[in-house]
Amino acid sequence: MYYLPDLFKMPERCSVCNLKYEMEIGFWWGAMYVAYAVSCALVLSFFLPLYLLFKFSVDMSLLIDMSLTTLLFPITFRLSRSLWIHMFAHQSKE
């Protein structure tokens, strides 16, 4: 189960490589664009099969779609941050 008060908490540095997560003020704003892309992909991947394959109505497909997207928000949130930081942080091979 998700513990909502801790959803947005993040350590200052990586416990393995000591990478500082917030490289500059407002760094995580870019993760919102990644989250938007991931959410759009989720919405389409839920809606299209429900509507086209299972022949649900548009209203029912959207209701199920939005419910699943809302339930998956914590995963989407963390995934988008992970993808965003991986675009900028490169770990050196030692």
Describe it:
By secondary structure, the protein is mainly α. It has a domain at 27-87. It is 59% helix and 0% strand. It is elongated, with a radius of gyration of 17 Å. The model has no long low-confidence stretch (mean pLDDT 88).
Give a brief description.
With about 90 residues, the protein is mainly α. It has 3 helices and no strands.
Topology:
Layout: H1 29-53, H2 58-71, H3 73-88
Helix pairs in contact: 1-2, 1-3
Tags for this entry?
single chain; 94 residues; mainly alpha; 3 helices
Radius of gyration, CA atoms, in whole angstroms:
17 Å
Low-confidence stretches: none
- Percent helix among the residues? 55-70%
Coarse structural class? mainly alpha
Overall number of strands = 0
In angstroms, what separates the terminal alpha carbons?
37 Å
Determine the mean pLDDT. 88
Q: Count up the helices.
A: 3
Could you spell the SSE succession in H and E letters? Answer: HHH
Query: Main sheet?
Result: none
Global geometry = elongated
β content, as a range?
Answer: under 5%
